[in-house]
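User: I'm putting together a teaching handout on how multi-component assemblies are represented. Below are the sequence lines for each component of a complex, exactly as they appear in our records. Could you produce the 3D structure of the whole assembly as structure tokens, so the students can see both representations side by side? Please keep the chain order the same as the input.
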Amino acid sequence: MNPPATLPLGFVTNCLGQTTITHAAAVAERLGFDCLEVGASVALDVAAFRAVQRNSPVKLQSLIFSRNYLHPEASLRQAFRAGLRERLALAAELGIGQITMATGVDPRLGLAENILAVLDFWGPIWEAHPDITFAMENCPMTGNFALGPATWRPLLEATAQHPNFGLNFDPSHLIWQMIDPYAPLGEFAPHLKSVHAKDTVVWREVLAEHGILTPYKLAEVTPHGMEETRAPWWGFRLPNEGDLDWARWVGELLHTGYRGVIMIEHEDPRYTATPDLVEAGLRRSLNYLRHLLASQSVQEAPS
Amino acid sequence: MRWKDIPLVFKIFAYAFLIFFTIVTVMPFMYFLSLSVSNYQDTFKIFIFPRDLNFSNYQRAFETVDLGLHFRNSVYITASALFLNLTTGSMAAYAMARFKFPLREPIYNLFLAGLIFSYEALLIPLFLNAKQFDLLNKPYTLPIIYATVGLPLTIFILRAFFESLPTEVMDAAMVDGANAFQTFFRIALPMSRSGLVTVGLFQFVFYWDDFALSFTLISDPELRPLSSGLARLYGEYFIDYPVLAAALVVTVTPVIIVFLLSQKQLVRGITMGAVK
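Assistant: Of course. Below is the structure of the complete assembly, with chains in the same order as your input.
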């Protein structure tokens, strides 16, 4: 049985690879998770989703589908948008309350034009689905231009009339971009819809030799099945196994009054080779965060 | 000296001068009129004429802020402030122009002193007073305060008007049995119509355009008129200039229409006031 959780803890299903919702829910239940964020590698079988909602103690908290919806190439753009429409329909049908997304970015346009493009594409979607929360993950790889506080401010100001749009705060992306992962929590607390728990390690000795740039092709296949280019001086880690000070970060998060879910996004390459390793990674993350949350006394009102 | 006797050089100079100032005055209007139908990318590229006609900015302006609501608020606030200001102001001006009573001139001078203060200087005391009187964020806040702030100008102009009316007409009315109120409403007011229009126009433009007072005293977006309601479009981190321009066109159009309709009366009113 789940121990009484102070904040609901879930994980992003992408780390399981191609799978079914039934299997993902079974893993989550066995490991003691409260909820799931269902990614693109889960087959969209409505009947199976319904069965999980009916029978499993694991809540289907959100769907995640981060693609570049403003891609300059029309064919890709259309494909991404079609995928999004499928998930919108699914979320509406099953009453899933959140979609974690990327805004999309057109690299040919400036910041303000990108914001206007977001309003053009997303505005009608946000309005048509007032019951669904849309959380933009600050991930630089999936098609976002708002990667830190300086760009969140204009984006959130321009979208102020859409209260169901906000941020999915993932500290791991901020670390290797050299953006402060702690300070923005307070300022952006009213816009936080959910958070991802993932850590990043920076190998200072590699950085000292390589520098930040990688002008040659350096690709790695991520658990999403997507090819991403990464510099050799940083990597994703399980929570507390990278450079983020988790006690400080979770403390700040709770201090802002955040009482939403924490979604573990497991992309640590040391724990992805076999299904057992993936589960081991999830278990380590869950145990650590449970322990940390219990030590932080959530009940105290923020002063 | 008649126009045809003026040397050609001076005529050319006069025309050049007038044309120059016409351009200087009209250009900003042209700029934001064409900006309101432009794409964002062209914001800083267009000069006077738009590169395309993109009317979606108007649609977006109506979606982003409730322009209809702010427009109704503006009409209500301006109309009721004008009514309050003109009724009280014209009666006060008439009394000070026609009747002799103790302390008439000191009272008049006290009102005139109000012309010296720019109301921006009174912003903070006004806010504190309004707070004490529980006048913040009420639908009647701005009408009352606008009418009051506008009183000195109304009394100043209308008193000069009433003094310029021939006394005989009003004496004749009195002889025919009209009391003071009847003389005022039936004789004096109709005769000074152009004066009322002039004052009304000055006040109308002030009420319609005022930003500082409405922004300071009204923080409830539901009660804000156009001027401060549009402030939402002027963000700290993001400004969609074409949409802002479209909203401004909607705001300014009534002022231009009112001016065009009352131009004749206005010119007459200003000149009559001038020679007294």
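A couple of points students might notice: The radius of gyration of chain A is 19 Å. The interface with chain B takes residues 112-113, 115-116, 119, 123, 153-155, 157-158, 160-161 of chain A (CB under 8 Å).
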